[in-house]
Amino acid sequence: MNDQYVQKTSKDGYRSRSAYKLVEMDNKFKLFQEGQKIIDLGASPGGWSQVASQKGANVVALDIKPMNAINGVEFIQCDIINEFEILREKFKDQKFDVILSDMAPESCGLKSLDHIRIMLLCEAALNFAKHFLSHGGTFVVKIFQGESDKDFCNELKKMFKTVKYFKPKSSRSESTEMYLVSLGFIGSKPSI
User: Fold this and answer.
1) How many whole angstroms separate alpha carbon 127 and alpha carbon 189?
2) CATH fold for the domain made of 35-185
3) Which residue from 10, 120, 136, 165 lies 20 to 30 Å from 113 (Cα-Cα)?
4) Which residues are part of a known binding site for S-adenosyl-L-methionine?
5) Residue 90: helix, strand or coil by DSSP?
6) Each residue of 11-32: pLDDT tens digit?
7) Which of 11, 142, 150, 158 is catalytic?
8) First-to-last CA distance in the chain?
């Protein structure tokens, strides 16, 4: 594959090209500080968890798929939608400084359907953030551009001081993938 980021992953020791997307976001938005508590949703294979951990954060990685261990990262294999109550019991009243979501559905090839499916994952990630994100915290979520991403962005603007669209240079140019970087959580009522 002629993809400079795929080629760089083995040289730089990252598990996935997506690590570079998070590095770009951190360079622009200063997402991480040493000692922060971070949740990485859709973590497997672990590129984002690696980046956050290398920044000195305490990372809990969640994914429905298995993930090989990363030094200093706690991994929980689970479905954040169907096992939400189990996670709520596990984390109880814990709050996290940053919640990252690079979750994406398996692509079916129909852009409109893929958009709907990722927006459902975005809503699940946001519900998770409503429960577990600390006041002033940061929420980063992957979206596919489509008819409802602006509505989702407007929903975020009611809960965060700043919300920005970001397309990393390391994203494939033909991809509709973008990220919403939401800073300064001011709160909202969880839906469940």
Assistant:
1) 9
2) Rossmann fold (3.40.50)
3) 165
4) 46, 48, 63, 79, 102
5) helix
6) 777 888 899 999 999 999 999 9
7) 142
8) 44
